[in-house]
Specification:
heterotrimer; A alpha/beta (about 240); B mainly alpha (about 300); C mainly alpha (about 300); B: about 300 residues; about 0% strand; globular; C: about 300 residues; mainly alpha; 13 helices; disordered C terminus
Chain lengths: ~240, ~300, ~300
Amino acid sequence: MTLLAVSRISKRFGGLQALADVSFDVAEGEILGIMGANGAGKTTLFAIISGHIAPSTGQIVFEDRLITGLSPDRICRRGIVRTFQIVRPFRAETVLGNVTTAALYGRTPAASRKEATARAHAILTEFGLAPQSTKPAGALTLSDQKKLEVARALAAAPKVLLLDEVMAGLTPAEVAQMVALIREIRQRYTLTLVVVEHVMRALVDLSERIVVLHHGRFVMAGSPEAVACDPRVLTAYYGEAGA
Amino acid sequence: MIDRRIAAPGLAWVLVIAGLPFMLEPYGLSVAITLCMWIALTQSWVLFSGLTGYISLGHVVFVGIGAYVAVLTWKILPLWAALFSGGCIASLFAILIALPVLRVRGPYFVVLTFGIAELMRHVILNAERALGASSRLLMGLPDNAVLFRWMAIFALVATALTLIVKPSRFGVGLNAIREDETAAQTIGVPVVRYKALAYGLSAFVPGMVGGILVLRSTYFEVGQVFNPMLSLSIIVMAIIGGSDDARGPLLGAAFLTLVQELLWARAPQLYLVLLGLLLIGFVMFAPKGLLGLWTRRKAADP
Amino acid sequence: MTTLLSGQLLFSALVLAALYALLAVGLNLVYGTMRLLNIAHGDLAMIGAYVAYGAFTLFGVPPLVILPVAAAIAALIGHVLYRGLFKRLIDQGGPIERLESNSLLVFFGVSIVMQNLMALAFTATPRAYNFWRDVVEVGGVRMSVNRLSILIVSAAALIAILLFLKRTVHGMAIKALIQNRKAAQIVGVDVERTQRLAFHIGFGSAGVAGALLSMTEQITPFMGFPFTVTAFLVIILGQLGNIWGSIIGAIALAVVQTYGVALTSSTYSSVLLYGLFVLTIVLLPQGLLRGLRSAR
């Protein structure tokens, strides 16, 4: 069942065409990877889906309702939450406070501060961040801040989670850890995930299906194996002789 | 929701409001009125600027609007109604301009609020000139006891508002806005609505304060109730006292009232030089104010 | 209607435009390189005005002769502010928005201190003096020599600054710094020195504008702020960093003000100024500011 439908999305920034006529569907419960070289338009796409920028043309449909043009907080309440490539924690706020805030808002706001804190604590424990609950978020290592970013997004009770380059800057060991963590939460919270990733290994490991973008255009969608062998993708990444 | 520890001071405050006018001689009462005014204004400022991080350098505009409403309805409405309408109209003004104005961020917002206050000052100035009312004389003013009681109530209300909002869900949302507005939106905080609400709320008490302020002197002067130095004083008090919680403004207001009483009548320009220096000093060396310095020292000692 | 088309009005507008342009270009240099909202710019002009006033009434020195001194004093004050305050703020680090907001508050404090120190020294009563009393008549337009010299000197100063920015290495370095700070650093521009130079020229030119102003306007310690607002309005309208844009914006604003006041009355000029100011900041496309801020 199609949960999220991206339909003929284009975005122009002055003279730059960041996205051109991109369309694809996201099925309920799947892990969809978005692949593309730098400048392919991946982050712009996320920003449009989550409501931070408006598309020049095109529509986004979520659960059969139009969400194009809604503000990010309304889209969050509908059930789509995104993380940021460059993490944006509430730095002066404690780790627990960060996640509690999301639990108080989000799609299914907690009824009380107490309940929100309890929810937050449970999520932090799963992520292994509980021992650092009272630390200011700004004091965490990058790897922990990335986990916090995902934990906070999760506390907002999304149906669809957009993960924007969660692995960037992590060591191979940390990457493996994060991949396992993501698989686990998908299971536990029945999420649909859309993942943008540069770390090819992680993307191929994690995704059940991959959409390939190149220079803002949709190239193809298919299983990781199919994508890895497709001549169009190889040309895009390696040039003519690579195919 | 409200701290149980507040119940006792709250009761004490009520007794103060009722009884103080009988105990202080005229000069002391006047100082008390000033002190309550600063507390009321600074707490209201903190409610918005302290919590959301949008620093308003033009908060006097709400005082001025409330004052003008009080002047226009003087002798037409009972005092409580005039004050209440002043507060409501000030809040309305804030909410009306909130949408375009709160889209501007950082220092541009600061300078914009100052510009708006100056704009309104000149608009009302011209309006009064057009009405042919270059200076309105106010007759039959209430005495200082009444003024004090109202001002003390406003101080109480403003402090109570800050105490209630800060730990509430609304307060958590405002805090998130201050930390990172974009991230706050992503997790569902209705940023636009909240900023407007906080701005409107922070204008209410200042509007009512304006009404009492104008009744302290026998004639209404636009420049006085729209004086940008009032905005400056509020910020200095908030910075000196610290704007993290409700205690800060109390500290800052007390400090500044003291300085003001010592200097204002004798050397108003020296007073302003001191205000300017305090602003510079605290912004550069102690941005969290005296309260911040104190808590930092406490944290350093084992 | 004939008054509206008179050369008189045009002359008034031109004189005003020249002053506004000088102020705006100076602000462009300071704000463009530092990206800090120095709302004390007009107050430096105020100080220049008092320097000229003091020099003439106390020592009989003609204002045009005292110009370099006024410039030097204003530049010196700018230097002290930079060394003492802003360098420290910038070195403190932290998020850019906080730095910008904090420095605004500091500049505001500086402005208040300067205004009131001058008020303590000279009292707040407006002062004025009359240097030249002659009037020339060219083509039916009567121009006071005072205002004519303002026009000529401002224009000369502007041309000098423009040539400096265009032809000299230091000038080009300043332009580079304004356009893209990081790129300027990469190509080897000495940021520290260039910034200081821009600061000195910027504040110095405010001092010059103030000294010129004193020839025809009454001066008070609190005259500075409307000029600050005007200068900011002009550089926002003319696009930040664009020197020619400031000049065109200055002419536009001066024309609107002069003819607007002629059509209505002088009481509305403040409402017009602050109204334009508020409107401009609100309507300013966020992208413009953000793009420029990323150039830090």
